[in-house]
Amino acid sequence: MKSIVISLLAALILAGCNTNDTTTTSNDILPMPKDCRLNSGSFKAGKSTSVTIEAADEDKAILAECVAELTQQENGNKANSIVLRIAEKIDSISSPEGYKAEITDENITITATSGAGLFYGVQTLLQLADEEGRIPCGTITDEPEFAYRGLMLDVSRHFFDKEFVKKQIDAISHFKMNRLHLHLTDAAGWRIEIRKYPRLTEFAAWRSKQLWKDWWFGDRLYAEEGSESAFGGYYTQDDIREIVKYAQERYVTLIPEIEMPAHSEEVLTAYPELSCTHEPYKQADFCIGNEKTYEFLENVLTEVMELFPSEYIHIGGDEVGKASWPHCPLCQKRMKEEGLKDVNELQSYLIHRMEKFLNSKGRQIIGWDEILDGGLAPNATVMSWRGTEGGLAAVNSGHKAIMTPGGYCYLDSYQDAPHTQPMAFGPYMPLEKVYSYNPVEGLDEKKAKLIYGVQGNLWVEYIPTEEMVEYMIYPRILAIAEIGWRNPQERNYGEFCERAVNAVNGLLAKGYNAFDLKNEYGQRKEALSPTNNCAKGKEIYYAESSPYNEKYNAGGGKALIDGIHGGWTYTDLKWQGFIKGGVDVTIDLGEERNINAVHADFMQMCIPDVWMPAEVRISLSSDSIAFREVAVIEHDVVRDEGLSFKNYGWKTEKAEKARYIRYKATCGKQGGWLFTDEIEVECK
Ligand code: ACM
C-alpha cells in the first residue's frame, strides 16, 4: 500500500540511515508535516520491537494500543525500539499537539508535550509504515496551524448509530482532526436521550417516513417510538458516554449541537407549550417571551453538559424564521421589558441568556453566524457558514471564529461532474476547490490568531445511508484536515492530490466507502479553455427590463460573448444570472455575416431556484429595427432533483445574412433564476 516516493538522487540510493545527505518527504503522510526530512534507510517495526511509553497513565494505554498496530509482524528478532516520551518543551514547537519524531534504523523516538502530540506522532508512523512495518528514517518536526480541525455530522435528517460514528472518529483522528460536531437536534428528529423530557425520544425522535425528502415534502408527521411507521432513532445517554470515551481515546472532542431558537419543530410538537401559539406541528421557533423556554433549554443543556465534557457547546442559532414573535404577547412583552427594538435583538436576548447560563457552568458557546444578528454574546465563538463574512465580523470584534463557509466546506455538494454522481444538495465542489480555501486570507496576524480553525460540514437531507455519508466525506475531509494542519503558504494542490489518492486507497482498504479520486471525471469540458465564435468580443445590449444580476454578473456586460464558459456550477461566477425578466440581449456583429447557428447553455438546479427557460426566441436583423424570428424553442419546465444542462439553439444548413441577433429566454411560471454562460453565434 505504501509507496515511499520520492525524489532520491541516484547517488544516495544506497545511503543508510543516519545520513543527513538527502532530504525528502513522503507521499504517505497526510496532513503533510511542518518539517519532514526522510532519507533512504528504514526502521523495521515488528514483534521484537521494544516499546517504551513515558506519559501520563491515561495516555499510556491508548498509545500502547496505537503502537501495537505497528508491531504485529515478525521482524526477524531485530532488537530495536520505539520510545514515546512526554517532554516539558520541544524546540521549534509551540502547539501542545505538536511532536518530534526521530527515526533511525535502530530506534524511533517521539517526543511531545501532550498525549495528543504523541498520538499524532504515532499516526505519522502508521501512515509511513509499509506492509512489512518498514518506516523511513529521518526527522519530523510537526505541529498544526489551527487548534480546531473539525467534522460536523448531521444525525438528525438521517440517524446513524454509535458504531458508525466511532468508525468516523477512527478515520478523522488518523488524519489528525480533533473535533467531531454532532448536529443532534433538528426538525427531522431529536437524537439524544434527555431524562427530564422523555417525549423527545419517545416521539420527537421518530417520523413517518424513512427518507428525509419523502417526509419533508410529504406529511412531516412524527410518530410514537415502536409504532409501525416510526423511522428514526436516538443515542441513549449510555451511547453518548461510550462515543465520548471512544473519541477521547483518539484525542477527539465531541461537540454537541442543540438547536435554538429555530429548527425545533420536533421539540415544539412534543412540547407545544414552548412555542408562541402552543399548537403542535405549527412552529419551528421557541417562544422567547416564555420563561418555560429557558427552563427547558437549561434543563436539556444541564444533561448535555453531564455527558459531554467539551468546553464548547453549540447552540445552533441559524435560519430563524421569527414569524410568530411579532404576534406573540409574551415575546412582545419581553421586547418591551428588555428594551429590544426588533426580532433580531429578541433572538440575541435568548443567545445571551444561554451564553450566561453555560458560562456559569464553565462552558463556552459556539453558534452559527446568525448569532451576530442583534448583537453578539460577549464570549461567543462564531461558526461562519454563509460565506466568510460572519467569521470576519467576529474576529474584527475580537471574537473567535471557526470557518465553515458553504462554498468550500459543505460536503453535501457535488464532488465531481454531476452526471457521474448521486444527487447532491449543493453545487460542484471538488477536492481541489475545498483545498483552495485559506481561512486566514487577508487577515493580519492579530486577527488570524482569532481564527480558531476550520470544519467540514455534512448535512444529510439527501444522504440516507452510511455508504453515502462516507462517500461524501472522503476524501474531501482530507483537504479540510490539511487546511487545519498546514501553513497555507506551503500548500500545493498537485502534490496534495497524490497524497490524497494514497490516503483514499488506505481508506478503501479499511472498508470506508470513499470516492475514488482515480475515477474523477473533473470539470465541465467547455469550461477548460475559452472557445471562439463570431460573436466573441463584439457588442451586446441588454433590454432594460432584463438586466443581469450584479451578484452573478460573470464579469459584466460582455460576459455572454467573451468565449468563457462556466463550469458545473453557477457559483463559479462564470455563469450570468437573471432573476427578473429572464434574458433579453441583442448582439451586434459589427457587420452583416452569414449566420448558421445561435445557441446557449442553461442549467437547472431546483433547490437553489435555478431553472431552465420555458421558452427561447431567436431573431435576426440587418438594421436592429426589423427582426425576423428564426426559432421558438419551448420547454416544459418540470421540478426535478439534481443538476442538468440544456442547450437552446437554432441551426440551419442555409446560412442567413444578419448583423444583429436577439436572444430572448423566458422563465416558466415557477419564477426563480435563469443562468447562461455564453451565447455562441456560428458564421460561415
Ligand atoms: C446551516 O447550514 N444552516 C448552518
Verbal overview:
The protein has helices at 57-68, 115-128, 162-174, 199-202, 212-216, 237-248, 265-270, 291-307, 329-338, 343-360, 389-396, 406-409, 431-435, 445-448, 466-473, 476-485, 493-509, and strands at 35-44, 50-54, 81-86, 99-103, 107-112, 134-142, 148-154, 179-183, 206-207, 231-232, 253-260, 312-316, 364-368, 381-384, 401-403, 451-458, 539-542, 576-578, 583-604, 615-621, 627-634, 644-666, 674-683. With 684 residues, it is α/β, with parallel strands linked by helices. The protein has 3 domains: 8-142, 2-Layer Sandwich (Chitobiase, domain 2); 150-519, Glycosidases (TIM Barrel); 525-683, Jelly Rolls (Sandwich). Strands 7-8-11-12-13-14-15-16 form an 8-stranded parallel barrel, surrounded by 6 helices. Strands 17, 18, 19, 20, 21, 22 and 23 form a 7-stranded antiparallel β-sheet that branches. Helix 11 links the parallel strand 14 (381-384) and strand 15 (401-403). Helix 1 runs parallel beside helix 2, helix 3 packs parallel to helix 6 and helix 8 (291-307) crosses helix 10. The radius of gyration is 29 Å and the shape is globular. Bound molecules: acetamide. Acetamide (ACM) is lined by residues 318-319, 368, 385. The site of acetamide has 4 residues, from loops.
Short descriptors:
23 strands; disordered N terminus; binds acetamide; TIM Barrel; seven-stranded antiparallel sheet; 17 helices; Chitobiase, domain 2; 684 residues; alpha/beta; Jelly Rolls
Helix residue percentage? 10-25%
> What ligand molecules are bound, each kind once?
acetamide
Gross CATH architecture of the largest domain: Alpha-Beta Barrel
Number of strands: 23
Number of helices: 17
CATH superfamily of the largest domain: Glycosidases
Radius of gyration: 29 Å
Strand content: 15-25%
Which descriptor suits the 3D outline?
Answer: globular
Low-confidence stretches: 1-21
| Name of the top-level CATH class of the largest domain | Alpha Beta
User: Could you please say which CATH topology of the largest domain applies here?
Assistant: TIM Barrel
Biggest sheet, open or closed, and with what strands and sense?
8 strands, parallel, barrel
Q: Return the domain count.
A: 3
Return the average pLDDT rounded to an integer. 95
Structural class: alpha/beta
Termini distance? 56 Å
Strand order in the largest sheet: 7-8-11-12-13-14-15-16
